[in-house]
Amino acid sequence: MKEKRQHLSDILLYLAFAAAGILLTLLIFLPIKGQTPTTVRVTVDGSVYGTYSLDRDQTITITQDDGKENVLVIEDGNVYMKEANCRNQICVRTGKISRPGQSITCLPNRVSAVIEGGEDNGFDAVIR
Question: Of 10, 30, 70, 85, which is most buried with the most CB atoms under 10 A?
Fold first, then answer.
């Protein structure tokens, strides 16, 4: 049985595909200069609880009258829900967000955090 030999053109084609993949990954995941989000708007039960700058690291404890509590952290331009006393913990497992339009929502506690600001990059959505 003859062994297939890889030609130089095949190897160059593989390298071109690898380089294109790396470039696309960098374009999707690295922030584009001048498009830095500026604030995160936190709402509780549809009412604005507060608007916070992403330029300043801080921890916001959101306590409601009925004992519901969420801890939101802003750190290095990223936002994440550190703690919540809800049962399902989906908001905590959402992870960090950093781009305009991204959000974290705690449905049981009716808390939402949405990143706003930055320049419009012309995209309707980013799929990861």
Answer: 70
User: Residue 62 carries which side chain, given as an amino acid letter?
Assistant: I
In this prediction the pTM is 0.65
DSSP 24: H
Q: What is the pLDDT of residues 64-75, one digit of tens each?
A: 999 999 999 999
Least confident range from 7-21, 83-97, 113-127: namely: 113-127
Asked if 80 and 96 touch (Cβ cutoff 8 Å), the reply is yes
Length of the chain as a residue count: 128
Which residues contact residue 50 at a Cβ distance below 8 angstroms, ignoring those fewer than 6 apart? 41, 42, 60
**In sequence order, what E strands does 1-128 have?**
39-44, 47-53, 58-63, 69-75, 78-84, 103-106, 111-116
Is residue 127 classed as helix, strand or coil in its secondary structure? Answer: coil
The alpha-carbon radius of gyration of the chain (Å, integer) is 21
Locate the DSSP E strands across 68-110.
69-75, 78-84, 103-106
The helix, strand and coil proportions of the chain, stated in percent and rounded to the nearest 5, come to 20, 35, 45
Let me know: does 79 contact 103? Beta carbons within 8 Å.
no
